[in-house]
Design a protein that fits this description.
- With about 190 residues, the chain is α+β, with helices and mostly antiparallel strands.
- It has 2 domains: about 10-80; about 85-189, H-NOX domain.
- About 50% of the residues lie in helices and about 20% in strands.
- The chain is built from 8 helices and 6 strands.
- It has a 4-stranded antiparallel sheet with strand order 3-4-6-5. Strands 1-2 form a two-stranded antiparallel sheet.
- A hairpin with a 3-residue loop joins strand 3 and strand 4 (about 130-140).
- The longest helix is centred in the first third of the chain and has 29 residues, at about 10-40.
- The radius of gyration is 16 Å and the shape is globular.
């Protein structure tokens, strides 16, 4: 496993995941998550009571996603789907990316949104054209599950633009020996 970068994410990131679990699995899902997190030494009530802008260590974010995966019985696609739904719950993202904006506009503001949610790492646009882009996530080492979540989240941001059929694929990953993660995007206009 890759050593996790020191840093923080906003508690709102985890709280959005809690909303998704409740929507998909109800209180039974939240109870299962609580039990799994307790086994990891993490308190769900503490997460729920935090302010959305409070800081949560990245290692805890990674463990939280591991616990979410258990709630979804090991179905990794549910983590990607949870990522895809996350931007739709973010007031900041909804303000920055109204439906009429192009995916390219969203990409130009991606680093700002990243910095608002994560204290470590840097999103860099490597390529951008009218129907495709390549984005790098540098100086950010976490788990493969986080990479899967982010691929879903990037598509979720695309859902808030005028892009059609947006696909995001992780083409390089720190967990596979690369220096950083790269995400390739394709869409129709």
């Amino acid at each position: 496993m890759t050593e996790i970068t020191e840093g923080f994410c906003r508690a709102g990131v985890l709280q959005t995941d809690l909303e998704y679990i409740k929507k998909k699995k109800g209180n039974e899902g939240l109870n299962k998550l609580d039990k799994v997190l307790k086994g990891m030494g993490i308190s769900l009530p503490n997460i729920q009571s935090m302010r959305s802008r409070d800081n949560v260590p990245l290692w805890m974010r990674c463990k939280f996603l591991d616990a979410c995966l258990e709630v979804f019985d090991g179905n990794i696609e549910k983590i990607r789907e949870m990522g895809r739904e996350a931007p739709k719950a973010s007031m900041l993202i909804k303000m920055l990316y109204p439906f009429h904006l192009s995916p390219n506009y969203a990409l130009t503001h991606a680093s700002r949104v990243w910095r608002d949610h994560y204290s470590a790492g840097e999103l860099v646009i490597l390529e951008s054209s009218s129907c495709h882009a390549l984005l790098a996530l540098k100086n950010f080492r976490t788990t493969k599950l986080m990479c899967i979540f982010f691929a879903g989240a990037f598509v979720g941001v695309g859902d808030l633009t005028k892009a059609k059929n947006l696909v995001c694929t992780e083409v390089k990953c720190v967990n596979e020996g690369h220096e950083w993660c790269e995400y390739a995007f394709k869409w129709d206009i």
